[in-house]
Amino acid sequence: MTKNVIGESQDLEKSFSFTVTLSDKTINGTYGEMKFENGVSTFSLKHGEKKAAHHLPKDISYQVEESGNEGYRVSCDNATGKIPDKDVVVVRFTNEAIPQNPPSRPDRHKPTPPPENETPKEKTPPDVPAPPKGNPPTTKNPTPISNIPSKQVHQPTPQTSRSDRTATNNLPSASNKTGSQRSAGSVHTSPLDHIPKTEDASCIEIWLMLALLSFLSLAAMIVMEKRKN
Fold it and tell me: Which domain holds residue 53?
């Protein structure tokens, strides 16, 4: 008999019990490495061990059984048969360790449901730090809007022609209205208000153009007088 243990989780130091039963119950004593009593021999074997029986009577039946092999898948050769004449029968027992079921891995993409009779916890907002005690920090007084100097935009005064001025001066009702307005507290107007301001660049350009035209006309008149003479 031979014993072999295989598998990833095998225990090479584990002993397995064997029972050899003969059909002739009158066989007693030691036959080789086996001791029989009323045709039955019991012993144990580990991985790689073996045991043999010699000089047994021929043509008697035998049966080999193994015990203590929980957690193993057992395969055997020639476990039952008859003792041959002048021949050797090899009984082989091979035990393969059955791998234990590995723990199931939780699915990372599947959320784990909460246990029964337990409500899901609500998310609490993060703690907001309380403002420091004491007087709040003072800031410099900003400049009031009323004190900010505003940019003055000079708008050109509309020019009036000489004919308009003459017509205005000749109207008697205008002076009366002006007197009544002055008596009523209206703003006093001056004749110089109609004169263009000197800081107005557009008026200066007009004056320069008028002066150039006057100079050209004067020069033309002088040339014409010289031609006549």
Answer: 2-97
